[in-house]
């Protein structure tokens, strides 16, 4: 839950829900980018750090790779988080 | 990917280790607390303590939200979950946390409708599709997760969703650090500031630590070299007689935090007069509840929660571990009665808890089975 998961923006939200489509290690899901609205100009292809379904920071590609590496080292704990990430849905 | 390789560079690690050793005053002992559970994890996983001189010690702090949740709150949550009309939703980390009468998993096995979610937004979706039930989200976490809960409540309000509620257990990091600074049994020389919490609150709230308590703090990233570099910065400050807040993780953490996130927390939540922390006792203004305007979404107001204070099991020494007074392996039940499969205390539940991190990796570190670490990871190969 405390893990920040790096995701790549695939599609920006087209309505007021703030739900953008991202991919994480090939898994797609919707993520809320509302907390970055005032902070950052986001475009498709940007990397973001996601906490429990919300983007908290914009990061660069190197940082995303580093964050993924830290997560992979968590082993089963990360697998669980990624599975939850992939199998649940905000609709 | 060059950057990552640099961060994994054993040569850089060795260089930093030499620099740190060079800054040690002869005969002086140094203790730095890493507040965040993510750091604890990296430290044990990579055997970072093996890189540090014998007289530089890393002390593990209370920065794992699952670990500090008192048993009484788990029991309260289960009491809410036991209502026939309730679907309780919680992060996976929460499921095995022992309360006075068992964990969420136990309550689920006994028939309560408890579901794991990745995000509070998932809980909101469950509420939309189950209009005849009330969906309660077990909200835990520091400032990293609080904005998500707040945003979700605002979303529920905007949608006019009347069957969604939050059981708020959000805690704030600053009062916990204050409590540790005031605790008489601990001598610290500085702090590694939490990485992700700081994304939200920024570095400013730590300034009192340097100013009033004369301790340096360096906000640190999660890579092994981030941590070594942060320790180096702390040592450099001490050697130069400086006492400041520095931001080693500036590639992610803005000095002023995330304004929008702070604003939504403030709009939806207010500080509780006090809150109980497992092992640390009652700390004033250390947690958040929903504001009265959001009473319709507040499970604590909708349901009568027993609110019983449950004493931690006698054998449990989590409090001492959370304050850094005891190392995990010094707890009497560590690895015997208390393991990640059958946790007695919460530090054994989450992978970010000091006991679980040490159980999973640390046992192979320090002088014990040193070769195992040396083989396992290039960073510590010498
Ligand atoms: S070993 Fe178990 S009981 Fe002892 S401090 Fe760690 S989590 Fe608590």
From TrEMBL, chain A:
Pfam families: HupF_HypC (PF01455). Gene3D superfamilies: 2.30.30.140. InterPro entries: Hydrogenase_HupF/HypC. It comes from the Bacteria. PANTHER family: HYDROGENASE MATURATION FACTOR HYBG (PTHR35177:SF2). Belongs to the HupF/HypC family. NCBIfam families: hypC_hupF. This is HypC/HybG/HupF family hydrogenase formation chaperone.
TrEMBL record, chain B:
The keyword Iron applies. It comes from the Bacteria. Gene3D superfamilies: 6.10.20.100, HypD, alpha/beta domain 1. The keyword Ion transport does not apply. InterPro entries: Hyd_form_HypD, HypD_1, HypD_2_sf. Keywords: Iron, Metal-binding. Belongs to the HypD family. This is Hydrogenase formation protein HypD. The lineage of its organism: Bacteria, Bacillati, Actinomycetota, Actinomycetes, Pseudonocardiales.
């Amino acid at each position: 839950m405390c893990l920040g998961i790096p995701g790549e923006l695939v599609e920006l939200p087209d309505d007021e829900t703030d739900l953008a489509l991202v991919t994480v290690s090939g898994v797609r899901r919707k993520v809320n980018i509302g907390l970055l609205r005032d902070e950052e100009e986001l475009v498709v292809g940007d990397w973001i750090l996601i906490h429990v379904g919300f983007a908290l920071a914009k990061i660069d590609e190197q940082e995303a790779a580093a964050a993924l590496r830290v997560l992979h080292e968590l082993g089963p704990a990360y697998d669980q988080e990624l599975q939850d990430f992939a199998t649940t849905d905000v609709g | 990917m060059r950057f990552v390789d640099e961060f994994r560079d054993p040569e850089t690690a060795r260089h930093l280790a030499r620099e740190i050793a060079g800054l040690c005053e002869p005969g002086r002992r140094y203790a730095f607390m890493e507040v965040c559970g993510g750091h604890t994890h990296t430290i044990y996983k990579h055997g970072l303590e093996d890189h540090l001189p014998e007289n530089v010690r890393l002390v593990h702090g209370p920065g794992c939200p699952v670990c500090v949740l008192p048993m009484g709150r788990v029991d309260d949550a289960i009491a809410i979950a036991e209502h026939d009309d309730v679907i309780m939703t919680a992060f996976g980390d929460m499921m095995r946390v022992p309360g006075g009468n068992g964990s969420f998993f136990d309550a689920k096995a006994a028939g309560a409708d408890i579901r794991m979610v990745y995000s509070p937004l998932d809980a909101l979706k469950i509420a939309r599709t189950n209009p005849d039930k009330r969906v309660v989200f077990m909200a835990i976490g520091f400032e990293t997760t609080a904005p998500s809960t707040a945003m979700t409540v605002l979303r529920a309000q905007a949608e006019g969703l009347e069957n969604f509620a939050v059981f708020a257990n959000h805690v704030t990091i600053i009062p916990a650090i204050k409590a540790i600074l005031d605790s008489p049994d601990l001598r610290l020389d500085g702090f590694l500031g939490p990485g992700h919490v700081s994304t939200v609150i920024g570095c400013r709230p730590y300034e009192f630590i340097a100013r009033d308590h004369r301790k340096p703090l360096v906000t640190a990233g999660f890579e092994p070299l981030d941590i070594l570099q942060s320790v180096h910065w702390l040592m450099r400050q001490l050697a130069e007689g400086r006492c400041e807040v520095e931001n080693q993780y500036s590639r992610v953490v803005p000095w002023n935090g995330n304004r929008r996130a702070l604003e939504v927390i403030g709009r939806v939540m207010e500080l509780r007069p006090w809150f109980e922390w497992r092992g640390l006792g009652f700390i004033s203004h250390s947690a958040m509840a929903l504001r009265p305007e959001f009473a319709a979404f507040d499970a604590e107001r909708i349901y009568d929660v027993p609110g019983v204070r449950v004493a931690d099991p006698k054998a449990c020494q989590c409090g001492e571990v959370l304050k850094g007074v005891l190392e995990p392996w010094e707890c009497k039940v560590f690895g015997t009665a208390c393991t990640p499969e059958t946790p007695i205390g919460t530090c054994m539940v989450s992978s970010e808890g000091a006991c679980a991190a040490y159980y999973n990796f640390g046992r192979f570190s320090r002088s014990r089975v040193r070769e195992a670490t040396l083989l396992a990871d290039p960073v510590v190969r010498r």
